[in-house]
C-alpha cells in the first residue's frame, strides 16, 4: 500500500508560477489564489479541487479511493 502524499506543486495556468502547498486531508480546496499573478484558480470541470486540476499530486481522497471524489 502506498502512503498518501500530502504535498503537491500547484502550477498556475495563467502565469506558470509554481508553489509547493500542503493539501487538506479532510476537505476539498475549491479556490486557490496564485502568489505569482493573483489569479483565482478553480477546479476544471470534472475535478473535485484545485490540486486535482493544477497539482503534481491529486488530493488525498482521490489518492486513497482511486477515483472517488472528495465531494461525494
Fill in the keyword field for this structure.
two-stranded antiparallel sheet, single chain, 19% strand, alpha+beta, two-stranded antiparallel ribbon, 2 helices, globular
Question: What would you say this structure looks like, in words?
Answer:
The protein is of the alpha+beta class and 72 residues long. The protein has helices at 50-54, 60-65, and strands at 7-11, 18-22, 32-33, 40-41. The protein has one domain (9-65). It contains 2 helices and 4 strands, in the order ββββαα. The longest helix has 6 residues, at 60-65. The model has no long low-confidence stretch (mean pLDDT 89).
Break the fold down into its secondary structure elements and pairings.
Layout: E1 7-11, E2 18-22, E3 32-33, E4 40-41, H1 50-54, H2 60-65
Antiparallel strand pairs: 1-2, 3-4
User: Structural class of the secondary elements?
Assistant: alpha+beta
Strand order of the largest sheet: 1-2
Question: What is the mean predicted local confidence, pLDDT?
Answer: 89
**What percentage of residues falls in helices of 4 or more residues?**
10-25%
Question: End-to-end distance, in Å?
Answer: 23 Å
Tell me the fraction of residues in β-strands, as a range: 15-25%
Using only CA atoms, what is the Rg?
A: 12 Å
Oligomer: single chain
Domain unit count: 1
The helix/strand order is EEEEHH
- Count of separate DSSP helical elements: 2
Query: Biggest β-sheet: count, sense, barrel?
Result: 2 strands, antiparallel
Low-confidence stretches: none
Count of DSSP E strands? 4
Amino acid at each position: 500500500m502506498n502512503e498518501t502524499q500530502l504535498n503537491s506543486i500547484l502550477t498556475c495556468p495563467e502565469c506558470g508560477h509554481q508553489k509547493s502547498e500542503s493539501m487538506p486531508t479532510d476537505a476539498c480546496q475549491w479556490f486557490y489564489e496564485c502568489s505569482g499573478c493573483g489569479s483565482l484558480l478553480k477546479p476544471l470541470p470534472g475535478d473535485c479541487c484545485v490540486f486535482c486540476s493544477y497539482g503534481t499530486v491529486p488530493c488525498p481522497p482521490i489518492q486513497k479511493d482511486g477515483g472517488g471524489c472528495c465531494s461525494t
